[in-house]
Design goal:
The protein is α+β, with helices and mostly antiparallel strands and 317 residues long. The chain is 44% helix and 10% strand. The two termini are 20 Å apart. The protein binds 6-diazenyl-5-OXO-L-norleucine (DON). 6-diazenyl-5-OXO-L-norleucine binds next to loops.
């Protein structure tokens, strides 16, 4: 694929440190807004006085503010990592089993699955992530270890791991995901045992990382598929553009249209309050604030990304 853009932009004209300081100042008066995810105690208990943000340039410079080094539950942000593992293993064959369209429905919706015969709308809804998990399970000898290795190498943090309490709570409260996995299996769209797919899904949801880890972990999506942390080519440039496109159209669920409108950057959220975003060829970002809006996206994380796009003038549009 022809790449008209040079590897390294001159980002020095932007005072990224000052910009994120400004945003940090602005959010202070709004701490407490939104509601932490309530379906498991360990997420519900996170206080709403935390806000962190980190920016990692394609050159490797890090700018951070607030609680940028506090670990939190990455939840659905892991769907970017597992999608990358699945695409690396089976390439475009994945799209025979998962679609690539925005859903307009909540992340845990089952509605479309029946009339679309067990083919999830996109890889970022829970249904799609379960099929992606199945592909990863079939493709790697030890899928859990492959995921851990992936996020550790991408972030440069060998300590990244799953939070056992979150993992157990996900399992204990996972009725809807259990129903969904069985429903998909009934259409023949899972190769592995339902329990094995769910175990992998709960592992990925319970990974604990901080803003700097997470911004680094998706740097390859800003850097033409190349991970500056490990020096590896993770996916082709073309594949990185495609993953970014999916994040833009489906990464924030039924708020993806609003995100495109107000932020204009590919982004992926999780109900732990994290959101990663990508400025292609320039930088990757992560914001964290545990209070969610009614769509399950971090309320102040979304505000912070909106302000970041305004203050920097950056947008893929
Ligand atoms: O699977 C679930 O429903 C939860 N572990 C939430 C995953 C998630 O973060 C979805 N979205 N924002």
């Amino acid at each position: 694929m022809h790449d008209p853009i040079q590897d390294q932009f001159d980002v020095s004209s932007l005072d990224l440190g000052e910009i994120i300081d400004t945003i940090h100042g602005e959010v202070q008066a709004r701490l407490g807004e939104g509601k932490a995810a309530g379906y498991i105690d360990s997420l519900a208990a996170v206080p709403l006085d935390r806000f962190g943000m980190a920016v990692v340039t394609t050159g490797g410079e890090v700018f951070e503010v607030g609680h940028s080094r506090q670990r939190f539950s990455i939840q659905s942000i892991s769907k970017v990592h597992t999608l990358t593992l699945a695409l690396d293993a089976v390439g475009d064959d994945l799209w025979r089993r998962v679609d690539r369209e925005p859903s307009g429905d909540p992340f845990n919706s089952l509605i479309q699955l029946e009339y679309e015969k067990g083919i999830p709308r996109n890889p970022f809804m829970n249904a799609g992530a379960l099929v992606v998990a199945d592909v990863v399970l079939s493709s790697y000898d030890d899928a859990g270890q492959a995921l851990l290795d992936f996020v550790r190498r991408r972030s440069g943090n060998p300590e990244v791991g799953s939070d056992a309490v979150v993992e157990r709570s996900e399992r204990e409260s996972g009725y809807r995901n259990i129903a969904m996995a069985n429903f998909i299996k009934s259409y023949g769209n899972l190769e592995n045992d339902v329990d094995a797919v769910l175990d992998f899904y709960w592992l990925q949801c319970s990974l604990g990382m901080d803003c700097v880890d997470l911004a680094r972990s998706v740097q390859y999506l800003a850097k033409r598929g190349h991970c500056g942390v490990s020096g590896e080519q993770v996916v082709s440039y073309e594949m990185s553009t495609r993953i970014n496109a999916l994040m833009m159209t489906a990464g924030t669920y039924d708020a993806a249209g609003d995100f495109a409108y107000y932020v204009g950057l590919p982004a992926k959220s999780g109900v732990g309050g994290g959101i990663v975003a990508v400025v292609p060829h320039m930088m990757s970002l992560c914001t964290w604030y545990p209070g969610l809006d009614d769509k399950g996206n971090s309320l102040l994380g979304r505000y912070a990304l909106h302000r970041f796009a305004q203050l920097t003038g950056l947008s893929v549009f």
